[in-house]
Design a protein that fits this description.
The complex is a heterodimer of chains A (about 250) and B (about 260). Chain A is of the alpha+beta class and about 250 residues long. Chain A has helices at about 5-10, 15-25, 40-45, 50-55, 55-65, 65-80, 100, 125-130, 135-140; strands spanning about 105-115, 115-125, 150-160, 165-175, 180-190, 200-210, 210-215, 220-225, 230, 245-250. Chain A has two domains: about 5-80, no CATH class; about 100-250. In chain A, the strands form two sheets. Chain A has a five-stranded antiparallel β-sheet with strand order 1-2-10-6-7. In chain A, strand 6 and strand 7 form a beta hairpin. The longest helix of chain A is centred in the first third of the chain and has 17 residues, at about 65-80. Chain A is globular, with a radius of gyration of 23 Å. Chain B is built from twelve helices and no strands. Helices cover about 75% and strands about 0% of the residues of chain B. Chain B is mostly helical and about 260 residues long. Chain B has helices at about 5-20, 25-40, 45-50, 55-80, 85-105, 110-130, 140-160, 170-180, 185-200, 205-215, 220-230, 230-260. Chain B folds into three domains: about 5-75; about 80-160, no CATH class; about 165-260, PhyR, sigma-like (SL) domain (Butyryl-CoA Dehydrogenase, subunit A, domain 3, Up-down Bundle). The chains are: A alpha+beta (about 250), B mainly alpha (about 260). The interface between A and B is large, with 92 and 89 residues.
């Protein structure tokens, strides 16, 4: 936040504007969650948009934090190098696609009755460790992070013919008196040509360690689930603990 | 201008979606709405529009354009796990990372390529699972993931201090220059002019020029880049380096002036 004096100076002579920018430099820790726009702003800058004039809040952040500034200039460099001749790889690239086989969560569809289905996913401990890779949570709680503060727990499409349901279960860190993860469920449906109605209401249930919460969805959209206390699924060093992670979606019809 | 509330932005989104619904099929509109609401929740719209509510419409157009352009390939990557699409992307990721490492001082050799391959796989796993917000170009978004992956690698390997020495500049003298009440306005301006120009004279030519062009002459970064025959990215880098140098020089100048008083 600029002081009144700095704001006043900003609108004054070029020398004072320069001095006000110098005063702001390297003075700020950047609040988490406000840096994931880097791609958008770097792309705009790359296209010649005047970032300082169009996005002054972001520009101020660039001045205030050397880490964000470095990431921004690195990104601009990288985007520009795409258009130029770059260093060729010395050897033929080695492409290993095994990660595609190991990354999908296990899913299980059950028909409990006609029109009454339930689909569930489970994450392995290894998968959870990837999402919250060693002390990732601690790092993002503590550091001047340029990383996206959101963790994607599950992102899947599944088809109950002819309707395709797309879900994203993500969460972000809420800090304060109690540090928690705040989970959100995003559900979109794609209708087939026969246009049957999607199976609302749907019940979503997340069980993760000693956290267990359910929510009913009457339509597609984005809903917030109750907060997840960190100690439900993480140890004191904020590494995931080896507990079950299950997410189910059930047609209540 | 006041910062628009989430409710005000939501109303604008609804209005833009109604216009979209007049010419697009409902499934498409629903997808766009879902992206917009997620991005609204994540605070992205607030950042994009700053304090101008009219920019919501521009943001919606950006999402629509990017959704058309990138959704098919994103589906092949994240949902279908299409080997051909992933092979092409992995090659690209390896090249980006290799170049990034070389720019950071690594040798352009087979060992660096091996590191690039490992990091590309880590970045690929991130890309496979991450949420693409559709408000940026896919390549720019993927580049952020690549850069973050490389930075994590540097952190883990180099254990570099997070506070470089040149941050530790005493900025009190700069504050004093801003608020010194012992001068009249005219005297203060003259003193400031002289101090800044003396400091500028100590900068390397290119760094001095970028400050003169973009601050003292007030021309845009893009125009300055054209004038100096450099890219926009290079100009931003040059400008930030120049500001860091100036901050250090003026911090010292201020201290020595304080000593004289």
């Amino acid at each position: 936040m600029m002081t009144n004096a700095e704001q006043k100076l900003n609108s004054q002579t070029p020398e004072r504007k320069l001095l006000a920018d110098l005063v702001q430099m390297n003075t700020g820790r950047v609040p988490r969650g406000e840096d994931e726009m880097l791609a958008l702003f770097a792309e705009e800058a790359h296209r010649g948009v005047n970032i300082e004039a169009q996005y002054p809040t972001f520009y101020r952040k660039l001045l205030q934090n050397a880490d964000v500034r470095q990431a921004f200039t690195d990104l601009l460099d990288a985007l520009e190098q795409e258009e130029q001749l770059t260093h060729p790889l010395p050897q033929k690239p080695n492409i290993d696609l095994r990660f595609l086989r190991t990354q999908s969560p296990r899913s299980h569809l059950e028909w409990l009755a006609p029109e009454h289905w339930r689909i569930g996913w489970q994450h392995t401990f290894e998968k959870l460790c990837q999402i919250f890779s060693p002390s990732e949570l601690a790092y993002r709680l503590d550091a001047v992070a340029i990383e996206d503060p959101w963790f994607t727990l599950l992102r899947e499409d599944f088809e109950i013919a002819p309707i395709v349901y797309s879900i994203v279960l993500d969460c972000n860190l809420a800090t304060g008196a109690n540090e928690t993860l705040t989970p959100y469920l995003n559900l979109a449906v794609t209708l087939g040509t026969e246009q049957p109605r999607p199976a609302f209401p749907l019940q979503a249930r997340l069980q993760w360690g000693n956290y267990d919460a359910s929510i009913t969805l009457d339509e597609a959209g984005r809903v917030r689930l109750p907060d997840i206390p960190l100690d439900a699924a993480f140890d004191a060093e904020l590494n995931p603990i080896e507990v079950d992670f299950n997410f189910t979606l059930e047609a209540l019809a | 201008m006041p910062i628009p509330s989430t409710e005000a932005i939501f109303i604008k989104i609804e209005k833009a979606l109604m216009e979209l619904a007049a010419r697009e099929d409902p499934v498409f509109v629903m997808r766009i709405k879902s992206i917009l609401l997620t991005n609204l929740d994540r605070g992205r719209l607030h950042y994009f529009i700053e304090d101008d509510i009219l920019r919501v419409r521009l943001y919606v157009q950006k999402i629509v354009g990017n959704y058309r352009q990138f959704a098919p390939d994103l589906r092949k990557l994240q949902n279908d796990h299409c080997p051909q699409t992933w092979t092409a992307l992995l090659k690209k990721l390896q090249r980006w990372i290799f170049n990034y490492l070389v720019r950071k001082g690594f040798q352009a050799d087979a060992h660096t390529q091996m590191i690039a391959e490992e990091l590309a796989n880590e970045a690929a796993i991130q890309l496979l699972n991450a949420y693409f917000p559709f408000d940026a170009h896919f390549d720019a978004w993927a580049h952020v993931i690549v850069i973050n992956t490389c930075r994590k690698y540097f952190r883990s390997k180099l254990k570099k201090s997070s506070i470089p020495d040149n941050w530790l500049v005493d900025i009190e003298p700069l504050h004093n220059m801003l608020r010194d009440d012992t001068f009249t306005e005219k005297e203060r301006q003259a003193e400031l002019h002289e101090t800044i120009h003396k400091a500028l004279a100590q900068l390397p030519d290119a760094r001095r020029e970028v400050i003169e062009l973009t601050y003292l002459q007030g021309i845009s970064i893009k125009e300055a880049a054209e004038h100096m025959g450099k890219s926009v990215g290079a100009l931003y880098s040059l400008r930030f380096y120049a500001l860091e140098d100036l901050r250090e020089i003026l911090g010292q100048t201020g201290n020595s002036n304080d000593d004289k008083r």
